[in-house]
Amino acid sequence: MNILIINGPNINLLGLREPQLYGNTSYPALLERIKAHANHRGVTVTCQQSNHEGDLVDYIQAAYGVYDGIVINPAAYTHTSVALLDALKAVGIPTVEVHITNPLEREDFRHISYVGYYAEKTIRGHGLDGYIEAMDYLIERYGGC
């Protein structure tokens, strides 16, 4: 199984950005954890991050025919990007949405998720463990080790 992990704006600042909400673990440490878990589960994982909406759309479009599943933390674009929703619908790849915090417990504007209209599962508020849970969900549902 081949899984694409996509992270949106400011996720690259993990460990620096609002540590009271997002913790002290750095983005490179998150990537190491994701890759170690993928190796343990016997799957291939590719991680992408961008602060630019169009780059995220490009990652999704390029995933067609290459990846069996997508784990996406669209970050701030969760609440604004119909483009991400449309790209996910176009490629039709099973997708799990991940949020480190629980947006439903934050400001009202964070309660809407356009990506959530497509994602078959959303994991909120489980910290960095949410990425592992999302990978495990895809592996268990769609085949893998």
UniProtKB/TrEMBL annotation:
It comes from the Bacteria. The keyword Amino-acid biosynthesis applies. Its EC number is 4.2.1.10. PROSITE patterns: DEHYDROQUINASE_II. Substrate binds at N73, H79, D86, I100, T101, R110. The record marks R17 as: Transition state stabilizer. The active site is at Y22 (proton acceptor), H99 (proton donor). Pathway: Metabolic intermediate biosynthesis; chorismate biosynthesis; chorismate from D-erythrose 4-phosphate and phosphoenolpyruvate: step 3/7. Gene3D superfamilies: Dehydroquinase, class II. It catalyses: 3-dehydroquinate = 3-dehydroshikimate + H2O. It is an enzyme of class 4 (lyase). The keyword Protein biosynthesis does not apply. Keywords: Amino-acid biosynthesis, Aromatic amino acid biosynthesis, Lyase. It holds the Pfam family DHquinase_II. InterPro entries: DHquinase_II, DHquinase_II_CS, DHquinase_II_sf. Homododecamer. Catalyzes a trans-dehydration via an enolate intermediate. NCBIfam families: PRK05395.1-2 (NF003805), PRK05395.1-3 (NF003806), PRK05395.1-4 (NF003807). Belongs to the type-II 3-dehydroquinase family. This is 3-dehydroquinate dehydratase. It comes from Veillonella magna. The lineage of its organism: Bacteria, Bacillati, Bacillota, Negativicutes, Veillonellales.
